[in-house]
Amino acid sequence: VDPTLDLFEEISKLKKEKNAVILAHYYQEADIQDIADYIGDSLGLAQEAEKTNADMIVFAGVHFMAETAKILNPTKKVVIPDFKAGCSLSDSCPPPMFKLFKEQHPDHVVVSYINCSAGIKALSDVIVTSSNARIIVDSFPKDQKIIFAPDKNLGAYINKVTGRNMLLWNGACIVHEIFSLEKIVKLKQQHPNAKFIAHPECEEEVLKLADFIGSTTGLLKYTMESDADEFIVATETGILHQMEKASPHKKFIPAPPDNGCACNDCPHMKRNTLEKIYLCMKYELPEITMDEELRLAAKKPIDRMLEISK
Ligand code: 13P
Ligand code: SF4
């Protein structure tokens, strides 16, 4: 790409020319969030993708999110800046293995976190996100046997708050799994007035310390509504951009991972760049395509979630 190009301007031009909409997850870099038409958590993004009138959806997130957009709105062209932007959680649950697991527990319903492939969605009864998992699990009778996949941390958290004993698939997110408990405790001591807030994909020991647990949208709202001036934030650092924009007078401290880095970035989310967004809009590639039978099977449990989350 010509280095003299003003990418913000070029992307805005392409948006109009092609009647495109840019949907971005909160974990995207600040520039991408600033050029997006909609920024949200997984539920918000799915709802937005379903209702958009644009001809092209540019999905600044990871593969399973763009795939969900295509499942919900198949007549639109869905492009993704980097086809390799995957998700460790989604990868931890291969459909053939999960199918065998499900067959071993025929009396269980399958509740799957949206961070999974279309193949897993097609094997599920209902999809959840971190913002509606509790309500959806609660909608089943107390004695209903449930398999929860693929995130064992979110599953354990939902088990705890609902008093259930769901059978958990052994998957986890590489980003939320590596927060350093020791460093968080130290930070809390250094900032005694700070609220410690965490995403439910974090491990139980981290969640135990949290003043508030929620999806990315939930965490953002909490920082806007809280009287506190300081927050230690245990989720991917991209979310801090919107927190700082919404409350410029408040201080946001990213919770440190235990890998020596100061911030906790998702390597998949951070594959996307402004330049790749420009290129994927210009060439309308890479595009998400899907087998129609798989799409319809994966759509059923997502529709069920969207119906409950209205
Ligand atoms: P939410 O934005 O739905 O909370 O999901 C977080 C996440 O890890 C997305 O990959
Ligand atoms: Fe997947 Fe975790 Fe990255 Fe979200 S933050 S896309 S769950 S690896």
**What is the number of helices?**
15
Backbone CA Rg? 19 Å
Distance between the termini: 42 Å
The ligands found in this model are: 1,3-dihydroxyacetonephosphate, iron/sulfur cluster
Q: How many E-type strands?
A: 12
Helix content: 40-55%
Kindly report the spatial arrangement of strands forming the biggest sheet.
2-1-3-4
Just give the CATH class of the largest domain: Alpha Beta
Order of helices and strands: HEHEHEHEHHEHEHEHEHEHEHEHEHH
Shape: globular
Q: Structural class, from secondary structure content?
A: alpha/beta
Pfam families: NadA (PF02445)
Function: Catalyzes the condensation of iminoaspartate with dihydroxyacetone phosphate to form quinolinate.
Keywords: 4Fe-4S, Cytoplasm, Iron, Iron-sulfur, Metal-binding, Pyridine nucleotide biosynthesis, Transferase
EC number: 2.5.1.72
Offer a quick outline of the entry.
The protein has 310 residues and is α/β, with parallel strands linked by helices.
How is this fold's topology laid out?
Blueprint (H helix, E strand, L loop, with lengths): L6 H11 L2 E6 L4 H6 L2 E3 L1 H10 L4 E5 L2 H10 L4 E3 L8 H4 L3 H9 L5 E5 L4 H5 L3 E3 L4 H6 L7 E4 L2 H11 L4 E2 L12 H10 L4 E4 L5 H5 L3 E2 L2 H10 L4 E5 L5 H7 L4 E4 L19 H10 L8 H17 L2
Parallel strand pairs: 1-2, 1-3, 3-4, 5-6, 5-7, 7-8, 9-10, 9-11, 11-12
Bound molecules: 1,3-dihydroxyacetonephosphate and iron/sulfur cluster.
